[in-house]
Write a structure and sequence with these properties.
With 206 residues, the protein is an alpha+beta fold. The chain is 17% helix and 34% strand. It is built from 4 helices and 12 strands; from the N terminus they run E-E-H-E-E-H-E-E-E-E-E-E-H-H-E-E. The two termini are 26 Å apart.
């Protein structure tokens, strides 16, 4: 069980983990090693509710039966969950807070990259708040209203401050940093059977 990610919460309905950076959330096309398969090997039946990019660390929840899957997944779809990410951005970000509302779609010739597209893109909204600023970087909290693939990476890139260590959208910074400086720090949702509001907090490791 040494390769099983750290478990933050487990009961007969859900498993909440700390997914490390560099580990897939779900099996890939060629790489089958992932948090899902590692947990499934130990705990049996498991269902995918949401995902974190391989390069992103933080809080991830899986369902242990189909009823729990439906109950929690609906909360993500209806945007009744609360999600907070923390990131380090390249450069000095102006202002204390802001909002990015730009549609996103797959950049087909350059998959798995995504791109901003006002014709084919799907609605995507991210709010941000500055926590700390130096000459080299800005630390921010990110509040994604939607959950598009690479949403936070692209939205920060669009305002001129890509996330440090991003191998896709800031490759020069990735050469100097061992990981993407993006972390799923907080997640709140209602338990699928009790209805109790669960609130998880996992401080950023950077």
């Amino acid at each position: 069980m040494s390769n099983v990610p750290d478990i933050l919460h487990i009961d007969d309905q859900i498993i909440v983990i700390n997914k490390p950076a560099g580990l897939l959330s779900v099996p890939g096309l060629y790489n089958k090693d992932c948090a899902f398969s590692r947990l499934q090997a130990v705990y049996g039946e498991l269902h995918i509710i949401h995902r974190l990019d391989m390069d992103t660390s933080g809080i991830l929840v899986y369902a242990r039966n189909k009823a729990a899957l439906t109950a929690v997944q609906q909360q993500f779809e209806k945007q009744t969950t609360r999600k907070v990410y923390e990131a380090l951005l390249i450069g000095k970000l102006k202002g204390n807070w802001g909002c990015v509302n730009l549609p996103i779609c797959v950049d087909w010739p350059n998959r798995p990259l995504q791109k901003i597209c006002h014709v084919d893109g799907r609605y995507a909204l991210t709010r941000w708040q500055r926590l700390e600023k130096t000459e080299q970087f800005t630390r921010v909290e990110l509040y994604p209203q939607t959950g598009r693939s690479h949403q936070l990476r692209l939205h920060m890139l669009s305002i001129g401050h890509p996330i440090i260590g991003d191998p896709f959208y800031a490759p020069e910074s990735a050469k100097e940093n061992p990981r993407l400086m993006l972390h799923a720090r907080e997640l709140d949702f209602n338990h699928p059977t009790s209805g109790q509001r669960l609130a998880f907090v996992l401080p950023a490791p950077f």
